[in-house]
């Protein structure tokens, strides 16, 4: 289930891509299926990285000697040289960071001049509904490692553009996932075992595995209106 459209990154054999905050590696796995592209997934959570590495064994073997690696690392102090990457993905991460401008500065540092940057964050209005349905202590926004802010699209675009990036475009994604999170927050005390939450989760898994034409059409039609995620695309200024 990819949020970033990898084709929009304009990758070529030999390019290096960083997936910052990769979690269990969904974008890493997608990139690993592109011939000749080197990808590094970095995250603070070692168990997620182990799952990501195990997931590579499920993918078809690709030809050549391109690198696919997982590393433990800190978004505020990236363990890479300046201008090390042709593209950086940062998907559903910035909303967790108290000092997200510091992470953006690090992304800018490790990205080559002319390189692509693709951040994604929860879209503001579906996210506000989640915060409203499960408010207060112990609620949706009060979880260890949880979301610490809701981004306005213009705010985030302006912050990134101010670092010397040119805006290239956007899209919204995961419309079918928004109702799942609204159900979870509406039944917050039983979010893991409520019958409606479990039923909708089974539907999402079925849709992910089968990808029928009808739900693909519904997703495409609904994403501009209620897509759970906002994906933005930028290019770093050339030297």
Secondary-structure map:
Layout: E1 16-20, H1 26-31, E2 38-43, H2 46-55, E3 68-72, E4 85-91, H3 100-110, E5 111-122, H4 124-133, H5 153-161, E6 165-173, H6 178-186, H7 195-210, H8 213-226, E7 229-236
Parallel strand pairs: 1-2, 1-4, 2-3, 4-5
Antiparallel strand pairs: 5-7, 6-7
Helix pairs in contact: 4-6, 6-7
Q: Tell me the series of helices and strands, N- to C-terminal.
A: EHEHEEHEHHEHHHE
* CATH homology superfamily name: Vaccinia Virus protein VP39
Main sheet characteristics? 7 strands, mixed
CATH topology: Rossmann fold
Percent strand = 15-25%
- Described by the principal axes of the CA atoms, the overall outline is globular
Enumerate the spans where pLDDT stays under 50 for 5 or more consecutive residues: none
| Percent in helix | 25-40%
| Main structural class | alpha/beta
Distance between the termini: 34 Å
Q: How many domains would you count in the coordinates?
A: 1
The counted number of beta strands is 7
Count of alpha and pi helical runs: 8
Q: What order do the strands of the largest sheet run in, or round the barrel if closed?
A: 3-2-1-4-5-7-6
Radius of gyration: 18 Å
User: Which architecture per CATH?
Assistant: 3-Layer(aba) Sandwich
Mean pLDDT: 96
What's the CATH C level? Alpha Beta
Structural overview:
By secondary structure, the protein is an alpha/beta fold. It has a single domain (6-236), classed as Vaccinia Virus protein VP39 (Rossmann fold), CATH 3.40.50.150. It contains eight helices and seven strands. It has helices at 26-31, 46-55, 100-110, 124-133, 153-161, 178-186, 195-210, 213-226, and strands at residues 16-20, 38-43, 68-72, 85-91, 111-122, 165-173, 229-236. It has a seven-stranded mixed sheet, with helices on both faces.
């Amino acid at each position: 289930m990819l949020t970033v459209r990898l084709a929009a990154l304009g990758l070529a054999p030999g390019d290096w891509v960083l997936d910052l905050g990769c979690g269990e590696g969904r974008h890493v796995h997608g990139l690993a299926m592109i011939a000749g592209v080197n990808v590094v997934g970095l995250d603070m959570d070692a168990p997620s990285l182990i799952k990501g590495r195990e997931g590579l064994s499920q993918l078809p073997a690709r030809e050549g000697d391109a690198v696919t690696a997982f590393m433990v690392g800190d978004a505020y102090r990236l363990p890479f040289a300046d201008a090390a990457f042709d593209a950086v993905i940062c998907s559903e991460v910035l909303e967790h960071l108290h000092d997200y401008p510091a992470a953006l500065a690090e992304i800018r540092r490790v990205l080559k001049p002319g390189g692509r940057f693709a951040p994604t964050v929860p879209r503001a209005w579906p996210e506000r509904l989640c915060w409203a349905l499960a408010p207060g202590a112990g609620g949706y926004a009060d979880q260890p490692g949880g979301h610490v802010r809701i981004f306005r699209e213009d705010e985030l675009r302006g912050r990134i553009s101010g670092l010397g990036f040119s805006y290239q475009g956007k899209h919204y994604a995961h419309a079918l996932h928004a109702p799942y999170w609204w159900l979870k927050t509406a039944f917050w005390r039983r979010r893991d075992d409520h019958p409606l939450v479990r039923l909708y989760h089974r539907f999402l898994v079925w849709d992910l595995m089968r990808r029928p034409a009808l739900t693909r059409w519904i997703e495409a039609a609904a994403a501009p209106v209620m897509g759970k995620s906002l994906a933005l695309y930028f290019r770093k200024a050339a030297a």
